[in-house]
């Protein structure tokens, strides 16, 4: 079986786990080149993971060897680099969010369709053992028909640990565009596509102070809302309540709960790949932990890329695909536009509920 040769653009904070898994875990992937505007980060990545080529982004795009471009730059560069990759005839997978606006996301999806290329986007945590087991429980009827859900991500931002956190407070950042993709992709994977969004947003702090190294003490101007609350109705009729916030020091709320006609499912952290999962059927005295029955409970970032590589070789639709990422992008925007306009936002995009992964997979494979 041939491996798909990948060129990675962006060797920053998140690149290590991708490099680790794409070079050592997955059967269908080979990292053929890395690129970063920081020579030091690029060389370090190549050396640590045995990548044979350190190239400029342009060299990756021009190379006939590269089939798939993995775009791990920060949100402001996602659209430009993805479009260039597609224009150069490469399949492309990008970290979240897909782009800054649904118009940009739609343009990428359309360009990929027109060129017969695959477009995919993070997150791929919904393919992990935790969320796949939840999907199986719902599909197999353990909570009956899902009628409602809650989804909470409350924290105080990333300036206490990320080495260069300014992008979290610029366009494409904020808690919804940063963390919303995990929660919304999980919800769409579990409940299907959404239809209507009502949102309210606020910004509680005009500036943030970096307390991580090496930029300790520097101020960041906050350009985006940092507390987003709202509701969304799914096409199935289920109604979810959602909060994402960088303005809250601590809270005691669950990650995601799904309420069905026959019981309640407590979904694990959608930013991770594993459990725990708790289920309480109607009438049961307490929640019981359900063991995960799928592969990939550990940090498997890159699983969506491996799934895409499998589709490049064998055909099929990648699960973490552009339609899904663009639908999630439109939902995230809709919370903001609904808040600005004071009216519900009716969504224009939709997507297929991604196919579940099988149980019993061998580690490194998606089929
Ligand atoms: N850091 C995390 O824990 C984390 C987790 C999940 C997802 N993400 C997402 O991953 C993306 C990257 O985040 P990060 O934390 O790794 O950011 P980062 O700033 O640490 O890394 C981005 C890297 O891209 C490089 N880069 C930018 N433009 C480039 C270009 N034109 N050519 C080559 N290199 C270029 C930068 O030099 C930098 O090394 C973001 O979209 C973020 O939302 C990050």
TrEMBL record:
<dbReference type="InterPro" id="IPR050463">
    <property type="entry name" value="Gfo/Idh/MocA_oxidrdct_glycsds"/>
</dbReference>
<feature type="domain" description="Gfo/Idh/MocA-like oxidoreductase N-terminal">
    <location>
        <begin position="4"/>
        <end position="119"/>
    </location>
</feature>
<dbReference type="InterPro" id="IPR055170">
    <property type="entry name" value="GFO_IDH_MocA-like_dom"/>
</dbReference>
<protein>
    <submittedName>
        <fullName>Gfo/Idh/MocA family oxidoreductase</fullName>
    </submittedName>
</protein>
<dbReference type="InterPro" id="IPR036291">
    <property type="entry name" value="NAD(P)-bd_dom_sf"/>
</dbReference>
<dbReference type="InterPro" id="IPR000683">
    <property type="entry name" value="Gfo/Idh/MocA-like_OxRdtase_N"/>
</dbReference>
<dbReference type="Pfam" id="PF22725">
    <property type="entry name" value="GFO_IDH_MocA_C3"/>
</dbReference>
<dbReference type="Pfam" id="PF01408">
    <property type="entry name" value="GFO_IDH_MocA"/>
</dbReference>
<keyword id="KW-0560">Oxidoreductase</keyword>
<feature type="domain" description="GFO/IDH/MocA-like oxidoreductase">
    <location>
        <begin position="132"/>
        <end position="265"/>
    </location>
</feature>
């Amino acid at each position: 079986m041939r491996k798909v040769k990948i060129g990675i653009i962006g060797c920053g904070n998140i690149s290590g786990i991708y490099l680790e898994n794409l070079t050592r875990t997955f059967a269908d992937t080979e990292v053929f080149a890395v690129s970063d505007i920081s020579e030091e980060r690029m060389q370090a990545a190549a050396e640590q993971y045995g990548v044979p080529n350190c190239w400029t982004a342009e060299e990756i795009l021009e190379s006939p060897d590269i089939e798939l471009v993995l775009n791990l730059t920060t949100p402001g560069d996602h659209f430009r680099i993805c479009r260039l990759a597609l224009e150069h005839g490469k399949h492309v997978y990008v970290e979240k969010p897909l782009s800054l606006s649904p118009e940009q996301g739609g343009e990428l999806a359309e360009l990929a369709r027109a060129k017969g290329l695959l477009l995919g986007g993070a997150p791929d945590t919904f393919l992990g053992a935790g969320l796949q087991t939840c999907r199986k429980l719902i599909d197999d009827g353990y909570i009956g028909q899902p009628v409602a859900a809650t989804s909470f991500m409350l924290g105080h931002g990333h300036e206490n640990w990320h080495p260069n956190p300014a992008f979290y407070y610029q366009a494409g950042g904020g808690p919804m565009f940063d963390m919303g993709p995990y929660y919304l992709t999980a919800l769409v994977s579990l409940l299907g596509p959404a239809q209507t969004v009502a949102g309210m947003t606020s910004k509680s702090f005009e500036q943030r102070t970096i307390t991580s190294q090496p930029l300790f003490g520097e101020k960041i101007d906050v350009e985006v809302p940092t507390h987003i609350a709202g509701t969304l109705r799914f096409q199935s009729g289920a109604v979810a309540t959602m909060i994402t916030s960088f303005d809250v020091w601590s809270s005691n709320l669950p990650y995601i709960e799904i309420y069905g006609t026959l019981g309640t499912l407590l979904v694990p952290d959608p930013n991770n790949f594993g459990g725990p999962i708790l289920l309480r059927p109607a009438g049961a005295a307490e929640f019981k932990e359900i063991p995960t029955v799928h592969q990939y409970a550990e940090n498997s970032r890159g699983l969506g890329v491996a799934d895409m590589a499998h589709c490049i070789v064998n055909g099929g639709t990648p699960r973490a695909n552009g339609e899904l990422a663009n639908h999630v992008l439109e939902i995230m925007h809709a919370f903001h536009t609904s808040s600005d306009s004071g009216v519900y936002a009716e969504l224009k995009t939709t997507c297929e509920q991604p196919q579940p992964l099988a149980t019993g997979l061998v580690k490194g494979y998606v089929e």
